[in-house]
Write a structure and sequence with these properties.
The chain has three helices and no strands. The chain has helices at residues 16-19, 27-43, 45-64. The radius of gyration is 28 Å and the shape is elongated. The relative contact order is 0.07.
């Protein structure tokens, strides 16, 4: 089947910036990011930092007990954290 002719009664055009954007916006990513930030803020950034320090100290001490293990860390553990 072929289209022989087409009559356009109305036409809507997009503005130029919307025309060149590929795909759909990452709405789910934005919602997930908002939820993740809310979760972290409810935990408290100080609590997260404290827990991170404990994990890094545990890892460094555990790896130090392994025979012939070479650790490449900074002299002070406090500078090994973010």
């Amino acid at each position: 089947m072929f289209i022989l002719f087409c009559i356009v009664s109305s036409m809507n055009s997009l503005d130029l910036s919307s025309y060149f954007q590929a795909g759909t916006p990452n709405i789910a990513g934005g919602v997930a990011l908002t939820t993740a930030i809310d979760y972290l803020m409810n935990l408290g950034m100080e609590n997260i930092h404290k827990h991170e320090k404990e994990i890094v100290n545990y890892a460094i001490n555990s790896l130090s007990n392994i025979f012939n293990a070479i650790k490449h860390t900074l002299k002070h553990k406090q500078y090994s954290l973010g």
